[in-house]
# Entry
Amino acid sequence: MWSTRRISIYTPNFNHAFEHFCIHSGGRAIIQAVERNLRLRKQDAEPSTMTLYRFGNVSSSSIWYELSYIEAKGRMKRGDRVWQIAFGSGFKCNSAVWECVCDVKPGTATAWRDTIHSYPVDIVRTN
# Structure
């Protein structure tokens, strides 16, 4: 009848396509589930985790705070690609891909400018 053999699902290495990820920070469970299912590295979810820590769940606007975090850390360089992933109520998921057209200076006015030196902070992760 039904096979009890486990079939592994192919998941591409998204780090080959994108340098940065902005994952909707609707809660720790969402960030961790996306990180686990897309097989992202801990540092890929850092902007999302720090946004949730500092601002809480700010709905879909969180992806812009996360982009601002990446810029304030001086990580955004010309040619870098960013994948923004946001979730809504019900069965909604939207994403956008951006390519940086110029180097972004960390001193630029951002939502993180006054405290970026304090991040990342250590957060106890739960599974």
Observations:
- The chain is about 25% helix and 15% strand.
- The helical segments are 28-37, 46-55, 62-72.
- The chain has a mean pLDDT of 90.
